[in-house]
Amino acid sequence: MSTATEETLSPADAEAFRTKVREFLAQNATGSDRGVNSIETGRAFQQKLAAAGLAGLTYATEYGGAGLTKGHERIYREEYAKFPDMTYELVISHGMCLPVLNQFGTEEQKRQFMPDNIAGRTMWCQMFSEPGAGSDVASLQTKAELDGDEWVLNGQKVWTTLAHVCEYGVIIARTNPEAPKHAGISMFIIDMKAPGVEIRPIHQIDGGKHFNEIFLTDVRIPKSWLLGELNNGWNQATAMLMFERVAIGTGSTSGVTHTLADGLIEVAKKNGKISDPVVRQDLMKLYSEETTKSLVAMRTRAEMKAGKVPGPGGSLGKLHGSRISWMMRPLISRLVGPETDAWEGESSRGEAWSKRLLNSFQSGIAGGTDEIQKNIIGDRVLGLPREPMVDKDMPFKDLKVGTQR
What we know:
It contains eleven helices and seven strands. By secondary structure, the protein is α+β, with helices and mostly antiparallel strands.
């Protein structure tokens, strides 16, 4: 294992690494059309990143990482902020599934799965939500039963992002219906191409198909693909959700950024609306909110740099992102105008802003709704009294949830 300590990153080493990153990005971070080719573009970029020794910077070398420090990662993020985001499609695979594999996986699992994940040779999805278990994920009904040396999975998942292009997934399923709902859940690795896995794309309002519903019928996976402890899946899922909210709330870069406000300011300058005092005020509010989100993200990253596992504070960044979406929608409509509804030609300004506007609605749902984030912040950050849970100690089989009604 080759892992540098924070102290070994001298000013000279830091500058040499920054130069290496800057040169790599200048040559390879050429932009993505955020369209049908964006996934393959991201994976190809990630493979080049791995070949250059710049992928999985803080993960151990024996698991496919670079074995470097948080200082190296900070430098990379600072430089990456100056270039187009090439790997936004890998946010679940790298921001959520990878750290969970690293934290809870066995030695065998880490060596088998992490190198290909880090290099972008495989993509991973997260399979939590179900038709009867959205915000209350612990009410899930998908079950896993041990049959000899294999687990047999049956059930349904929904809103699974990019499942149709992923090779593997991290899934939670019920393994003990006699226990209370939070206590009888386990986490598994699943092959998305396995027999019995049926993936149906969900067609979105913007024409995309990022989300999916998944039907599992007698899907068999090796016994060794239990991820973490049996019946401790809820605690592991909570950790994964923390990673998710950090990934969504902090993004792929470091430092203070306000790219959305910058883009709308440019639009306002070009169409002459920048002199409108109401427009200027709203743009400044958006600029301030993006700046605040960046500062919260920097604090979260600093805590992780100090060795802390992401905590409930990650919900702050997630909620900021949703607030930004709420603020930007009327601004886009006001500044871009009718072009967001009808445009001519491909890849026009109106089409790009229209997709951004329509996609923004998911920010208040993905990774937990705004209401859930506020509950987490109130309970675990501010220390306010928790809401009563009348089903806390009841066996799951006795609950009237989902199809058990």
